[in-house]
Amino acid sequence: MFLATCSRSKYTIRNYKQAIERFRQFVSRKSLSEVTWQEIEVYKIGLMRGYYSHNKKPLASATVASFLAPLRSLYKWGSDPNIALFKMNPTSCVRMPSIPVNSKNHYLTKQEVGSLLNQLKKQSDRDYLIGLTFILTGLRLSELNSIEWNHFSKDAMEASMWLTVMDGKGGKQRTIKVPQPLWELLLQHLKSDKSDKKNDQRLFPLSGRQIERIIQQASRQCDLGKSFTPHWLRHTNATLALLYGASLQQVQENLGHSHINTTQRYLHTVEQLKKAAPDFVHESLTEFL
After folding, report:
1. What pLDDT is attached to residue 280?
2. Which of 68, 90, 118, 284 is disulfide-compatible with 37, CB 3.0–4.6 A?
3. How many CA atoms does the CB half-sphere of 150 hold within 13 Å?
C-alpha cells in the first residue's frame, strides 16, 4: 500500500522496495509493527561497518542513507493518525549519517568536454549523441534512459523543440529546451537507426548500465586524470550554464531541483572559478609583488 501510494519515479519505487525488503530480512523474526528504534540503530551501525554488505566492507554514508530513507518514509506514512498502521515511528529518533558534499569538483572543463566528445565520436555516432545529450540537457541517467520519441514537442510558435521529462526525480515532470543542433542530430540518428523499434520507442534503447559503460569507456580513453560518470556531465551542464550567464532559477528548472539550495551549490563553484578571495588580496598587493 505504501509503495502504491508513493508519488515517486519508478526507479525510486524500485529502490524503496529493495531497501524495505532488505530490512525485513534483517528483522525476520519481527513484524514491521514490532520494530523499535534499537533495531533501526543496530541496522544502521551494521551497514556502516559492512556487516551486511556482500564484501563485508563498510558502506559509504550516502549508501547507508539511501537504505534508511525508505524506512523513514514508510514509518512516517504508516504512523500517521489517519493511517495508523504503526503505533509509533521508530525512525524518528534515529539520526541519518552525515553525507559529505564530495561532488563539488565533479565537472569537466570546456577543453575536457571537447576531448570527451571526440572520444565518443570515435566509439560511435550513437555514443557521441548520448554524451552530447547529457551535456546539453543536464538530464539524469534514468531520465535520459526513459526518453521516448513522443516526449518531444514544438512550442506554440513552432520555433523551438522541447523535451518533456515524464518521470523525473520524485515522479515530477518538467520540460527542457532542446538546442536546434542537438535536435537535428537526433533526427539523423532516427533515420539511420536500423534497430527494431517495434517494442521499444525509447530514444536510446539501452539499459542504464550500458549507458554508464559507454561514458566510463570514454573516460578511460580520454586519459584526463578523472574517472567520471554520467552524473558528472549533469554537473558540467549546470556549471557551464551558470558560467555563461544562465540565472540560478533557469538552472534549477532545467535540472528539476525541488529546492534552490541544491542549485546554489553550483553557484558557489562558479563564483570561485570566476574570482576567489585570494585574487582580491593579490590585486590589493600588486604594487609590492
Report:
1. 84
2. 90
3. 2
Q: What is the pLDDT of residue 198?
A: 57
* pLDDT at 287 (0 to 100): 87
- Rounded to 5 degrees, what are φ and ψ at 170? 75, 15
Catalytic machinery residues: 140, 169, 231, 234, 257, 266
Q: What stretch of H or E contains 174?
A: strand 174-178
Q: Which residues of the chain carry a pLDDT beneath 50? A: none
Closest among 201, 197, 131, 198 to 166, alpha carbons compared: 201
All residues at 6 or more sequence positions from 166 whose CB lies less than 8 Å from its CB, including other chains? 146, 148, 151, 173
The pTM score is 0.72
Cα separation of 216 and 204, whole Å? Answer: 17
- Distance of alpha carbon 107 from alpha carbon 229, whole angstroms: 10
Residue 161 near residue 153 (C-beta atoms within 8 A): yes
Grid coordinates representing 150 are 513522443
The Cα-based distances of 84 to 81, 99, 209 in angstroms read 5, 32, 40
Q: Which three cell numbers stand for residue 87?
A: 503505533
Cell, residue 60? 559509504
